[in-house]
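Feature request disguised as a bug report, sorry. It would help if multi-protein outputs had a clear separator. Right now it looks like this:
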Amino acid sequence: MLARGMSDTDDRILDAQEAARFIGVAVATLAKMRCVGGSPAFIKAGRKVVYRRSDLIAWLDARRVRNTTEAANVPRRLTDPFK
């Protein structure tokens, strides 16, 4: 059963290249984030890394701000932890 407001396309599985394009970062940046932290949740399927679209949306939503004061609480670097 899907959460309220979600459609079946929210749980579509994306490979690393599609996920990077979806969140607007380079594939290499996404790989670095997986190693040092700050990455969206991912699934390791053998040697392949995949992402659920809903996890990418949740990761983006966590960085959503309404003004510059709120933006001060979001890390400048993607790999830095939240304050």
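(second protein starts here, but nothing in the output says so)
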Amino acid sequence: MKRKLTALFLALAACTVAALGQDMPPQYAAVLKTLDKKGDFKENVLKVNIPRSDLKVTVEGVATPTPFGFGGWVALTAGQGGMQVMMGDLVLLESEVNPVMSALLDNGLEVTALHNHFFFETPRIFYMHVHGDGDAQDLATKLKPALALMGSAPPTTTAAASPTPQFDTARLAKIVGHEGETNGAVYKITVGREDIPLKEMGATINARMGLNTWAAFTGTESAAAIAGDVAMLESEVQPVLKALRKNGINVVAIHNHMTGSNPPVYFLHYWGKGPAATLATGFKAALDQTGKARGVAQNKPIRPIVFVCEHGAAKSVLAAANFNKLAEAQNLPWRAVARGVHPEESIPANLQNTLTAEGLNVAGWKPQVIADSDVRGAERVITLSCELPSSASVPGVTPAVWEVPQMSDGYPAAKSAILGKVQELLKSLQASDKP
């Protein structure tokens, strides 16, 4: 009886230890050693602690300890095919942001967000989200140079602003490839993103509504300053970041201006100093990473394709996401949106997860009702096992009808049918677009 009780006690103890934590895998122990950081392994995730205990921060005059909101981190977990996924949030001084960003980008990691958590803090603190995937040790090696810069970046310096823009504005316009306007001491160039077929409640969101990229210049020919905003599709974020940093222009923020947009649009704010022509060249390098300035499909603006299903949350989403991935990979001038006759509140989480795992990111997409303006402005309208409502009917426009399996019949069957039709549609569009 005593042996049985002892065995039961040991079994319960083992279960308790397993519930509290997991043994550290050797590859994760090596990551902590490489980074010279502490961390723990729970729920199949390695969490590496990167606290900014070197900072003495006050928020609106109140002294705040490091755990109050200044404990940075990175985390790793195993993904498909033995690949590791790394995500993290680094706590940075203002002067550290761009040196750390360059170190991350130069070593093959991604920066996915940059923002603040506080108002009225001293010193100013920014938060940079990082992402990467690959071998655990390789990710640690790529991350280490960026971490080494934290606490060592030199302070930024300031210079007096020029009273008027004392530079050749025509030369800047020629470099950028777009004309601008002078307003007092500032010369501003604005480039709309008409290539992105963005609508809200049926209304077209254009440059005047804020869907644009711009650059403002001030100062002199040899000592100018630039500031602005870049509107980007998701696939353009990392190329734009790299272009700006390689040209010595500081990135200030990365965020969204709209929620539920389809496709998602991101905005990047930047700042730089130097000769006016050099700054214009740096801005042009970033602009060239976006669809309009790259001259997608021989300088033709991107034309919208509209997929419509009953609820705008499954079949049309699957079709639009696959269409956009294939069109973008081939640098074709079409982009698709998903619409619904009676739209659901949101795209099902399990479908979002499945599409994301397949490299089809629909994060931020929100089912929207089909409107006549969608139909009127589209090059092609395709209905998937539904009919357009009378409110969206446009004289002379006859939508193509795709009869495809219901998602309730199984995702593989629906995906196979829709993907095959999407591929045929792209071939048809290319054939009809030839001169």
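Even a blank line would do. Unrelated, but nice: The first strand starts at residue 39 and ends at 42.
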